Task: inverse folding
């Protein structure tokens, strides 16, 4: 546990080092938003007054003291569904971002470090995917795999691999020519060790920026997939899907529209603010 | 090198990327689901001969590599095959039906986003570090993370359902008579001099275009603002000032320098625009390619989904080519 704390402290030191105060402010605001939502997901059973999947009132009740945000068309408590819905989106986004970064970063490292034909071919494929509308690709993948959260996570992960790949590869190409790397090579340090111990630490600040920005994007993609019915099956609570279900009741029950969409936007904003704040350092050192 | 040769060279560069995306679409939608006919029918039992007959009719019983090249050749001839669900229905005809609606929406959305993005970026850049600048920068960051369907539904609620100023959804009132010439309703109503239809089509377009345009305008605001700040600090502006050139002329020259990257970015944004169009169309029941895609996904009509992906890949390739050409024309530093 102690080791973990010191490691976390060292990591945050590296990440926040050189970030100007304005950038730090953005990071803290973003972190606060994300932490509140993560807490909501963890403590969902304690916060939510009712079951998210069972009716607890009459259909389409407007907000009241019993039902803070009203009820949906099946009489389920909207507030409870919002609270539990955070679990779905956070889970999908976390899995997606971990998969895509743990594939994209090593690929970018190796491709950029060694160069050659493989590098050119890989870059071409990655560029082609990167240029394509990510949402449409995710839709196609999710459609082929079937509407389940884990499939949505895979679809989103595939879409963001090129983002990591391109960023890491670009940085490696720049660093490859620097004297300290040349020195490392001359000393005969094995390539794998050079990549891990000498290149990766230099990439960390940029990786953190891309990590949070792509997570923000992934939140919107997850919401879009589930809005289109490609991420969850009813009755699973999910913000995007709840918004879609509310679409037909805009006139009679406008309270169903406001909150799920707001939650999606605010979570994406929180993650984007972290990335924006951190990127102020990257911009300055350039 | 002449401009034509430059265009030819650039055009040849988009071929591999379109091919790569075609291949990905083929793997994802033809290979991944296994047998698409069975996928569509679900777990229902079906006599073996009947299954074979359907497979043969759709060309699905041939080896995968044969299907890969046959489909590619057909696509190049503009033939996307037939639907799995509505047997015999040509997908190319469906696409031709739906494409104008999406193009109309995309152009309108692009127009709105550039209009808002450039004007806000210009103001923010000129009023640097004032409250207006900070406000507009926040606008730039926040709009980027807005969830399109939510924003669309809010606009719909306010302007259509509560205020009753604009139509709720759709592309044109079913009661409005419009003779279709090109499939682009705005263009058609102008060609046929149908004022009533023009007003109707435009009023239907306002909310979807605003939704898409506002959400995509943020990056332009930021990009133009940052470029303008750099341009206004550069040596040539100082030289102008020293010679007593008037402010609005200086602004104009700085603006011209700052706008070039925005053009390139508009090309990159096109992919986002298409993705956003899918969501906007679903929100406003806009009968374009996006709603087509969503309908086809519900029925697991794989050939149709594949066709949409391939069409989008072509569209992205062609737009990046157009951007390259515009870039070469407006930036004298690009040699061709």
Result:
């Amino acid at each position: 546990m102690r080791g973990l704390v010191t490691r976390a402290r060292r990591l945050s030191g590296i990440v926040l080092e050189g970030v100007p105060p304005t950038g730090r402010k953005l990071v803290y605001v973003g972190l606060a938003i994300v932490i509140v939502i993560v807490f909501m997901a963890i403590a969902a059973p304690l916060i939510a007054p009712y079951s998210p999947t069972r009716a607890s009132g009459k259909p389409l009740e407007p907000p009241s003291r019993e039902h803070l945000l009203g009820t949906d068309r099946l009489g389920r408590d909207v507030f409870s569904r919002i609270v539990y819905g955070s679990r779905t989106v956070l889970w999908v986004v976390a899995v997606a971002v971990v998969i895509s970064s743990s594939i994209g970063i090593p690929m970018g490292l190796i491709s950029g470090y060694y160069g050659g034909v493989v590098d050119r071919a890989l870059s071409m494929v990655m560029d082609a995917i990167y240029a394509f509308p990510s949402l449409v690709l995710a839709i196609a993948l999710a459609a082929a795999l079937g509407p389940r959260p884990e499939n949505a996570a895979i679809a989103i992960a595939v879409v963001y691999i090129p983002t990591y790949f391109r960023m890491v590869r670009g940085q490696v190409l720049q660093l490859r020519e620097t004297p300290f790397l040349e020195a490392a090579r001359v000393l005969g340090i094995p390539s794998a060790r050079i990549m891990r111990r000498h290149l990766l630490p230099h990439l960390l600040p940029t990786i953190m920026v891309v990590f949070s920005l792509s997570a923000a994007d992934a939140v919107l993609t997850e919401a879009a997939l589930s809005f289109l019915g490609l991420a969850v099956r009813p009755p699973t609570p999910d913000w995007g899907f709840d918004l879609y279900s509310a679409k037909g009741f805009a006139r009679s029950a406008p309270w169903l529209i406001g909150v799920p969409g707001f939650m999606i936007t605010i979570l994406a904003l929180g993650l984007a603010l972290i990335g924006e704040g951190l990127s102020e350092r990257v911009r300055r050192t350039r | 090198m002449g401009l034509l040769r430059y265009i030819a060279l650039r055009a040849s560069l988009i071929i591999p990327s379109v091919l790569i995306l075609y291949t990905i679409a083929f793997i994802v939608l033809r290979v991944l689901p296994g047998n698409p006919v069975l996928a569509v029918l679900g777990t229902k039992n079906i006599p073996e001969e009947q299954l074979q007959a359907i497979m043969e009719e759709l060309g699905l019983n041939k080896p995968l590599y044969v299907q890969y090249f046959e489909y590619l050749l057909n696509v190049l001839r503009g033939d996307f095959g037939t639907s799995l669900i509505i047997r015999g229905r040509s997908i190319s005809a469906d696409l031709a039906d739906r494409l104008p609606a999406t193009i109309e929406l995309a152009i309108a959305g692009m127009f709105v986003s550039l209009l808002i993005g450039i004007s806000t970026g210009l103001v923010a850049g000129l009023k640097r570090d004032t409250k207006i600048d900070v406000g507009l920068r926040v606008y730039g960051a926040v709009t980027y993370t807005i969830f399109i369907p939510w924003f669309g539904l809010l606009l719909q609620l306010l302007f259509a359902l509560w205020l009753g100023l604009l139509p709720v959804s759709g592309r044109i009132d079913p009661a409005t008579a419009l003779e279709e010439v090109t499939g682009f309703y705005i263009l058609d109503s102008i060609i046929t001099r149908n004022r009533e239809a023009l007003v109707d089509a435009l009023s239907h377009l306002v909310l979807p275009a605003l939704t898409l345009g506002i959400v995509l305008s943020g990056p332009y605001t930021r990009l133009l603002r940052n470029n303008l700040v750099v341009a206004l600090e550069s040596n040539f502006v100082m030289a102008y000032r020293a010679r007593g050139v008037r402010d609005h002329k200086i602004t104009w020259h700085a603006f011209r320098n700052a706008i070039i990257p925005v053009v390139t970015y508009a090309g990159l944004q096109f992919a986002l625009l298409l993705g956003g169009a899918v969501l906007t169309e679903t929100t406003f029941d806009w009968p374009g390619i996006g709603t087509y895609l969503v309908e086809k996904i519900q029925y697991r009509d794989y050939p149709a989904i594949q066709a949409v992906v391939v069409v989008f890949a072509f569209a992205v390739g062609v737009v990046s080519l157009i951007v390259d050409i515009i870039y070469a024309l407006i930036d004298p530093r690009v040699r061709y």
About this structure: The radius of gyration of chain B is 24 Å. Residues 195-233 of chain B form the longest helix (39 residues). The mean pLDDT of chain B is 86. Chain B touches chain A through 50 residues (CB under 8 Å).
